[in-house]
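Posted in: Protein Modeling Q&A

I'm a second-year student putting together a small comparison for a lab meeting, and my supervisor asked me to include a predicted structure for PRA1 family protein. I've never done this before, so apologies if this is the wrong subforum. The sequence is pasted below exactly as I got it from our records. If anyone can share the structure token output, I'd also love a short note on what stands out.
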Amino acid sequence: MAAKMELAPLRPWDDFFPGADRFAKPEFGDLAKWNNRVISNLLYYQTNYFAVAVVVFIIVGFLNPFGMFLGGTVVTLVFAGSVWAGENKAPIKNFKRKNPTLFVIGVMVTSYFLLSLCGGVMVFIFGITFPLLLILIHASLRLRNMKNRLENKIEGVGLKKTPMGVIMDLLDQQEEKINKIQDFIESKLKE
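Accepted answer (user: helix_wrangler)
Welcome! Here is the predicted structure, written out as tokens:
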């Protein structure tokens, strides 16, 4: 899988933060549309999001290196364990497919609980949760452009695989998009 994976390019920062005209409040009433916007932005700006997260990780890691290492290890182990359980245990797999957001929240709550036992809650909040919150806010508010949509369609049909695409697959967020794209392509081929 890693041999076929491509790293998405770092998008220009003036595209990432273009100005207030390219940001809008998501439609909270239409969760499918909001989810689509978030997933599209996560895929398109993934390298920028990674860079932002690394900067926050470095700052928090510099202030509390052991706590950051412990927090990263716990979250990684909980995520890996939950993905394994989601793939190998039918009830968890069904829950993950039907409720991906709740699944991720469950991973974060479990990580938080385990870190609270070790005394690493502040590192968890600032080093792990804060960058995720920044990424979610940006992905929710940033309007998509035509280049963003094209890149997502290419990734969705499997012509290109990126790290965020793999994570989305593990969280069962790609299946619905792939089915929609496949239906679109089939309808165009019939015409």
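A couple of things worth pointing out for your meeting: The chain has two domains: 32-145, 158-190. The first helix runs from residue 13 to 16.
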